[in-house]
Design brief:
The structure holds 2 protein chains of 2 kinds. By secondary structure, chain A is of the alpha+beta class. Chain A has one domain: Sulfite Oxidase, Chain A, domain 2 (Alpha-Beta Complex). Chain A has 7 helices and 10 strands. In chain A, strands 2-1-10-5-6 form a 5-stranded mixed sheet. In chain A, strands 3, 4, 7, 8 and 9 form a 5-stranded antiparallel sheet that branches. In chain A, a hairpin with a 5-residue loop joins strand 1 and strand 2. Chain A is globular and about 70 Å long. Chain B folds into 2 domains: 199 residues, Fumarate Reductase Cytochrome B subunit; 57 residues, no CATH class. Chain B has a 4-stranded antiparallel sheet with strand order 2-3-4-5. A two-stranded antiparallel sheet of chain B has the order 1-8. In chain B, strand 4 and strand 5 form a beta hairpin. The chains are: A alpha+beta, B alpha+beta. The interface between A and B is large, with 51 and 44 residues.
Chain lengths: 260, 271
C-alpha cells in the first residue's frame, strides 16, 4: 500500500515537474511576444549604432585580405537564382540590354548599362563577408564605388538614405512588394569600400552571387549587401517604404544597422 | 569554544552586481545558443572552412529519419535527442544544434535571439564595468580577491580539502580561500572580459575600428570559437560554483549574497 502510494506520489511529482518545466519553457517563448518587450530590446540597436559610429571613423576601412586568403567556394546564401521573368530574360542575354536606374532625390537621374558601369573608375578589394548566421567567406570584388555614381547624379540636400531595389523574391510570392530591398545611410554610401560589384574572384559576377550587380558594404553584415540590384533611389526617409524598417530582412525583424 | 559569529560578508555592490549578472548571463547563454543554431559549426582562422569545422552539431540522414550528431575535430558522436536533432514540444523531430528547451526564444528565431543577446550584452557591459571599477577603487580586489604568496604556496592542501568537501571554519572562513580567489579572479578578470572581446571581434564594424581584435584573437571565426569555448567555461564554473554553494551551507551562502550576513561556524579546538 505504502509502496503504491510512493509510486503514485513519484508519478505525480514527475508529471508536476514536467508540466512546470514546460510552462516555464513555453514562457520563454511567450516572453518575446509582447510588443513592449520588442521595443525595449530594440533600444539596444540604437545604442549599438551610435556607439559604433562614435568609435568608427567614417573612412576606417574593413580589413583587406590577400589572394591566398580567398575562400575555395564563396557561399551563396538567400536567393541564388531569381525566378522573376524580366530578370530571367536579362540573364539569358548576358544583361546586354539591362540598365541600372538611379533616381529619387537627385539632380540628374541616370540610367547606366553594365558596359557603362564597367567603363567607370573601379575599385578592387579582397574582403571578408560575415553572414548574420555566423559564417564568414573571403572574396575578391571589383566594382564601381557608389560614391562615384552619387557624384554623377548629384544628391539633393534632403537625401539621407540610398535604397537598393532588387530582382529577387526569396519566398517567390510573385509580388513586387515582397522582393528584396536594402537601404544604407550616407556614411556607408560614401565609404570608399562601398561598391557595386560586377566581378567576383576575377570572373563576371555569377548569378548565385548577385549578377549583374551586388552591393558591398564591408563594415556591416552580409544581408546589407543586396544582390541583383536593379535600381537605386535616394530618399529622405525609409519609413514609408514597404515594411518601413529599411530592408527585406529588417522588415522581418533584423536590425537596420548590421554592424554587429 | 568560540561562539558562532555572524559577519558582514558581501558588500551591496557585490550582491547587486552578482544577481544582475546571474540574470544577464542566463539570457546571454540562452540567446547565444539560439544564435549559434543559425550556423551550428565552429572554425579556426578568418573564415569558415565548411568542409571541416572543428566542432559541429548536425542533423544527419539515417535511413528514413535524421539523427543528431556532434562532431569534434573530425570525430563524430551520436547525440540524437539532445544536440543536432531533438524532439520538439509537438513531438516532431527538430533539426537544430541546441534543443528548443535551452534557447531563447524556444522556437527558431535568429532575429529575436539577436535582440535579446545585444540588449543583455549592454547590461552585461554596464554591470561588469560597475563591478570592475568598484573592485579596483574600493580595494575589494586587493583586500578580498588577490591571493597572498603564502596562500598560493598552500594551494595543494586547499585542493585536497575541497576534494574532501571540508570547508574552513572560524577565522579562516571569514575570507575567501585561495581556490575561490583564483576562480573568481579568472572569471571576473579573464573569462567575462574575453566574452566581450570575442563578441566584439565578430562585429564587422568593430573589426574595422579595431583591427587589432582580429590579430589578437586569430581571426573572426577563431573569435567565434573562443566565444563558444569561453561561454562553456563559464557554464562549468557556474556548475561547480552552485555545487559548492549547495554543499558548504546553502542557506548561509544564499543569505550572505542577499543580505550580506554570513554565519561563521566556530573553529574546532586544536588538539
Amino acid at each position: 500500500m505504502s509502496g503504491e502510494r510512493e509510486m503514485h506520489r513519484r508519478g505525480f511529482l514527475t508529471r508536476g515537474l514536467a508540466a512546470a518545466s514546460t510552462a516555464l519553457l513555453a514562457g520563454c517563448d511567450e516572453l518575446s511576444d509582447p510588443p513592449w518587450v520588442k521595443r525595449v530590446l530594440d533600444s539596444a540597436e540604437e545604442l549599438t549604432r551610435v556607439s559604433q559610429r562614435a568609435l568608427l571613423s567614417p573612412t576606417a576601412l574593413a580589413r583587406e585580405y590577400t589572394e591566398a586568403d580567398l575562400s575555395p567556394a564563396f557561399k551563396a546564401n538567400g536567393s541564388t537564382d531569381p525566378g522573376d521573368p524580366a530578370y530571367k530574360a536579362h540573364a539569358a542575354n548576358g544583361f546586354a540590354d539591362w540598365k541600372l536606374g538611379i533616381r529619387g532625390l537627385v539632380e540628374q537621374p541616370l540610367e547606366l548599362s553594365l558596359a557603362e558601369l564597367r567603363a567607370m573608375p573601379s575599385r578592387t578589394q579582397i574582403t571578408r563577408h560575415d553572414c548574420v548566421e555566423g559564417w564568414s567567406c573571403i572574396g575578391k570584388w571589383k566594382g564601381v564605388p557608389l560614391s562615384a555614381l552619387l557624384d554623377r547624379v548629384k544628391l539633393k540636400p534632403d537625401a539621407r538614405y540610398i535604397v537598393f531595389y532588387c530582382a529577387d523574391n526569396l519566398f517567390e510570392t510573385g509580388k513586387e512588394k515582397d522582393k528584396y530591398y536594402e537601404s544604407i545611410g550616407l556614411v556607408d554610401a560614401y565609404h570608399p569600400q562601398t561598391i557595386l560589384a560586377y566581378e567576383m574572384n576575377d570572373q563576371t559576377l555569377p548569378i548565385a552571387n548577385g549578377a549583374p550587380l551586388r552591393l558591398r558594404v564591408e563594415r556591416q553584415l552580409g544581408y546589407k549587401m543586396a544582390k541583383y540590384v536593379m535600381r537605386i533611389e535616394a530618399v529622405d526617409h525609409i519609413v514609408g517604404i514597404r515594411g518601413g524598417r529599411g530592408g527585406f530582412w529588417e522588415d522581418l525583424g533584423y536590425e537596420w544597422y548590421a554592424g554587429i | 569554544m568560540e561562539k558562532r559569529e555572524v559577519i558582514y560578508r558581501h558588500s551591496g555592490t557585490v550582491r547587486i552586481t552578482h544577481w544582475i549578472n546571474v540574470l544577464v548571463l542566463l539570457v546571454l547563454l540562452m540567446s547565444g545558443m539560439q544564435i549559434f543554431n543559425a550556423h551550428p559549426a565552429l572554425y579556426l582562422g578568418a573564415q569558415s572552412n565548411f568542409d571541416a569545422p572543428i566542432f559541429a552539431l548536425d542533423a544527419k540522414q539515417d535511413g528514413d529519419t535524421v539523427k543528431g550528431v556532434t562532431t569534434v575535430f573530425g570525430h563524430s558522436f551520436d547525440t540524437d535527442g539532445v544536440f543536432g536533432a531533438a524532439t520538439d514540444l509537438a513531438g516532431n523531430v527538430d533539426e537544430r544544434g541546441f534543443p528548443w528547451s535551452v534557447t531563447l526564444p524556444g522556437h527558431r528565431d535568429l532575429s529575436m535571439g539577436r535582440r535579446w543577446h545585444f540588449f543583455f550584452a549592454w547590461l552585461f557591459l554596464f554591470n561588469g564595468l560597475a563591478y570592475l571599477l568598484w573592485s579596483l577603487g574600493s580595494g575589494h580586489l586587493r583586500r578580498d580577491l588577490a591571493p597572498s604568496g603564502k596562500e598560493l604556496s598552500h594551494i595543494g592542501a586547499s585542493i585536497i580539502e575541497h576534494a574532501q568537501l571540508k570547508f574552513a571554519k572560524g577565522e579562516e572562513a571569514k575570507r575567501y580561500n585561495v581556490l575561490q580567489k583564483l576562480s573568481y579572479l579568472i572569471v571576473a578578470f579573464i573569462l567575462l572580459p574575453l566574452m566581450l572581446l570575442t563578441g566584439l571581434a565578430m562585429s564587422p564594424g568593430m573589426d574595422a575600428a579595431f583591427p587589432l581584435l582580429l590579430d589578437v584573437l586569430g581571426g573572426r571565426q577563431s573569435a567565434r570559437t573562443i566565444h563558444f569555448i569561453t561561454a562553456s567555461g563559464i557554464v562549468i564554473f557556474v556548475a561547480v560554483h552552485v555545487f559548492m554553494v549547495l554543499v558548504s551551507g546553502v542557506w548561509n551562502n544564499l543569505r550572505s549574497m542577499i543580505t550580506g550576513r554570513y554565519a561563521i561556524e566556530p573553529a574546532e579546538e586544536k588538539r
